[in-house]
Amino acid sequence: MLSPYVVEVLIEVARVGICGSDVNWGYRPDKVISAPMVLGHETSGIVKRLGKKVTSVSVGDRVAIEPGLPCRRCRICLKGRYNLCQKIRFCATPPVNGTLCRYFIWDEDFCHKLPDDMSLDEGALLEPLSVAIHACRRGNVAIGSKVLVLGAGPIGLLCMMTAKSMGATDVVITDIDESRLSMAKGFGASCAINVLRNAEEVPQLIRNSFHGEGPDVTIECSGAQQSVLLGIEVG
Ligand SMILES: [Zn+2]
Ligand SMILES: [Zn+2]
């Protein structure tokens, strides 16, 4: 079995989410992969072995991994904004392999112990949840906010639910897929709008669903150019 280095942990991988970015590697012409690479970065697992100086987790702990290891030394790391580190080693970003494998070695302080009442499935969702929390914080979502979420994929749904839990009163979500929209309604969206079916009247539909005004905050989660333009138009 693989041996973790001094401050590393060997994890038996349990769950890995498939992110849009994983799927994109196969389709985007601007992302050229020159060598075989393991995908996956939304991950939970069970600690199997510890490096000599590991203290924060124990063998048998269930953990979620934080998939980007920053350099910890540059100015931006020392400012605490380590997600922006230029030397970050991010799972499933060449040349760093991802977590869709049986065993994975990662630094102990980027392995977060799961509470007893959290499942491994939920653990694998913590990384996308952190994206949603970061987005809502950047947008200053607060009590009474009116929030427009463009795109009802996993990130859009998590942004919608996070905005609600931060106190947003109206959270309107858009997508082109009815099943995603009905899921969004089920998870508490105030209004779910199909931007394909109502393409012409979408901007007005959005304003109507915010009682005639634009949203306070717009979070773009689709990656589609038209969606970005729509966000600017109604924002
Ligand atoms: Zn992801
Ligand atoms: Zn750094």
From TrEMBL:
Residues 154-228 form the Alcohol dehydrogenase-like C-terminal domain. GO terms for molecular function: L-iditol 2-dehydrogenase (NAD+) activity; zinc ion binding. Pfam families: ADH_N, ADH_zinc_N. InterPro entries: ADH-like_C, ADH-like_N, ADH_Zn_CS, GroES-like_sf, NAD(P)-bd_dom_sf. This is Sorbitol dehydrogenase. The keyword Transferase does not apply. It comes from Cyprideis torosa. Its cofactor is Zn(2+). One of its GO terms (biological process) is sorbitol catabolic process. The keyword Zinc applies. Belongs to the zinc-containing alcohol dehydrogenase family. Transmembrane segments: none annotated. Residues 8-116 form the Alcohol dehydrogenase-like N-terminal domain.
